[in-house]
Specification:
Blueprint: H1 6-13, E1 15-20, E2 31-33, H2 42-48, H3 51-62, E3 68-78, E4 85-94, E5 100-103, E6 107-108, E7 113-114, E8 116-117, E9 141-147
Antiparallel strand pairs: 1-2, 1-9, 3-4, 3-8, 4-5, 6-7
Bound molecules: zinc ion (ZN) (2 copies).
């Protein structure tokens, strides 16, 4: 039974990768993606959050206002202005009326803009539309890191 698609395996396991630019010497730090089964409930999700996001979610959680949640897990975001990257845990929280209480944003302080979510194309092992934070070259190469379990 080795016929499972890579997408399926990655969605279960989570994976990390590095981004490298063929035109300049840019090389990213390790980027985590995927949901993993770490993210079954809010307590687990809190481990993936940092700073203000974590405080906000802890507060909503303690008030018991969170009715359901949706998470893509770790996601990559890129600023449309300066092309800086951020790798953070995505999370949407809803109350019992179905209203959005919280949604992860990646905010670029120097540009005062929200970074765009950059979905990975796992079949082609690339991230469409991603460009180099340093020289702005398109078509960066991804090298996959270890699966984490
Ligand atoms: Zn920016
Ligand atoms: Zn570059």
């Amino acid at each position: 039974m080795f016929n499972l698609s890579k997408r399926f395996i990655v969605s279960l396991m989570g994976q990390s990768y590095f981004i490298e630019c063929p035109k300049c010497d840019y090389s990213s730090s390790e980027i985590t993606m995927g949901v993993g089964f770490l993210f079954g409930n809010i307590d687990d999700l809190l481990h993936g959050l940092k700073g203000e996001d974590k405080k906000t979610v802890q507060f909503l959680h303690s008030r018991k206002t969170i009715h359901h949640h949706y998470s893509r897990g770790y996601s990559l975001y890129q600023c449309p202005e300066c092309h800086s990257l951020e790798n953070k845990c995505h999370l949407d929280l809803y109350n019992s009326e179905g209203e959005l209480l919280f949604s992860t944003k990646s905010y670029c302080d120097p540009c005062q803009k929200n970074r765009d979510y950059m979905p990975e194309d796992l079949e082609k092992e690339t991230i469409p539309n991603l460009c180099c934070p340093k020289c702005h070259h398109h078509q960066l190469s991804l090298s996959l890191g270890a699966l984490w379990d």
